[in-house]
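Researcher: We're reviewing a set of sequences before deciding which ones to prioritize for further study. For each one, I'd like a predicted 3D structure that I can look through quickly. This is Mutator family transposase. If possible, include the structure in token form so it fits the rest of the review sheet.
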Amino acid sequence: VCAFRTRRLDHVEFPYVYLDATYLHVRTEHGMVVSKAVVVATGVTSEGRREILGLDVGDSEDEVFWRAFLTGLKKRGLSGVQLVISDQHAGLVAAIGRAMQGSAHQRCRVHFIRNVLAHVAKGEGEMVAAVFRTIFAQPDLASMGKQWDKVRDELTTRYPKIGALMDDAKAEVLAFAAFPREHWRKIWSTNPLERLNKEIKRRSRVVGIFPNEAAVIRLVGAVLADTHDEWATDERRYLSEESMAKIGKTEQTDTVALTKG
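Model: Here's the predicted structure for Mutator family transposase, in token form for your review sheet.
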């Protein structure tokens, strides 16, 4: 597991990197049981194949932890990253800005919709979610930007707090639309990691409470190494090589649609 976690990553470029955290119970050296974040990084290579990039245990809201994790990946040779897909952990976004300069950030749209719905009356959740989804049915970034503003104005009349929430998140939730359309469904959220997280949870339930962080690394590292091998031997690419070649040739400079008005 140690060799797997520290292997070089400079054999190929990784245009897409996904970051996610799963929470497990770990006993501290003082005997207390606390919830710890198991952070996993996966990537899609320029050839359209997936790889496990890294694993660590720490505080998912701590910028210093995230920055050390991301810097560690870069020191191992991670390069060519154009989009980082993740949830909105407090310290993570700041860490991406510092450690992954030049990379765009895609805020998981699934988690963002949940944040929006937290401000909505229970009986209206389905209606609001349906209205919000009309944004992602648009054909391009400019159209999505206009629809975002329309939905924002419509929802804000009933739920004022949603306005500021949508203003702050617009650029990050719509970042995916500057990349090839064939990739949208696989890069607009962290959902591609759900199956991996479920397997980590399933294997962890057998243990219940881990005696220390090293035990977490051993078990989760073994799960990730198995998954990595499965991906390596899969005949199908996660994203086609032809579509990966389109990255950078789409309108990634179109930021006009991401500003209000």
